[in-house]
Amino acid sequence: MKAARLMQYFVLFYFTVVYILILAIKVTGVVEFSFDNTLLLLIVMFAMISSDRKMNFLAALTSGVITILTFGVVPRVNLRLIPIFYLSTLLLLLLSYLTEKRGPLLRWSAFLAGGLIFWATRSMLGLVASQRLIFAASGYVVLASIIFWLLYANEKHQEMTARNKHDAFFDEMTATKNYRAFVKELDQGVQSYHAHGQTLGLIMVDIDHFKNVNDTYGHLMGNEILKEVTATLKKQAQTLTPTENVYRLGGEEFALLVREQDCQEVSQFAELCHEMVGNLHASQPNQVHVTISLGYSKLREQETSMHFFQRVDKLLYQAKKQGRDIAVGSCDVSVKN
Predict the structure, then answer these.
(1) Domain that holds residue 282
(2) Is residue 337 part of a domain?
(3) Residue 104 in this model has a pLDDT that exceeds 60
(4) Are residues 118 and 16 in the same domain?
(5) pLDDT at 85
(6) Which of 66-70, 99-103, 197-201, 317-321 has the largest mean confidence?
(7) Bridge partners, residue 208, by sequence
(8) Residue 30 has pLDDT above 50, yes or no
């Protein structure tokens, strides 16, 4: 969150510096071309990149102050340009904010409207010749369109990349991390233990007789049970520490990684998960009574992630073999493999 906010401020700073440079070129008159369109297009780019309301407000305030101060100290500049330009800036940012969640055509039209209103107002006040008006307004429409659609395409590409990255590591139905994410983060946890001594516990969970539930009540009921069990495990994990994660390994099997907890705490947490899932429908008539089997342990010295996973999986198998609906764990963390 802090990184995202810092990035927003960096964009605002970059926008301010570029704005000042372009404005300085405009008022010094070292070139014939008016930089009004360039300044407006810079605001379009900022509005596309930063959709944060606070950042837009700061950008409007910053550009307004800079414009007023600059135009005010340059005698050759017509002072009537100040309110026209500033109101056009505010209009651009306001239209950008209002159309942010709308379709691309509406957002594009909003950007075009802001610039066209600027040139139309200048024309009505006699601050631009008719030939210059057609050239400037047409140039704004073309350049604003190019900038908008390029940035919009980049925006969609980033969203698709983020969505694909999310989908690669999350289970769609239960909204938990999947087996791929589990393997990756288990390896990271084991490396952190060996490098820095950060303790790591693993709990594996299996819903008892889940095939019978699907066969008897149908897969829709089975899916609802998967979601309920997942929600219960996630809720319990959040009470331990905000960094705990629940993973769906496949079918009706789940795993939880528990960091910075001793083995007794891992054991108590596993028993709590077992109890809470068992109470889901226990008091409700005509409801499927759901139970789970669990295996749990702490990472041992010199143990690899694969050996750790296999050992806890055997503990889960023992829980099933002993009649299910129980938690079986091992706390012999001092034993070396």
Answers:
(1) 179-330
(2) no
(3) yes
(4) yes
(5) 77
(6) 317-321
(7) none
(8) no
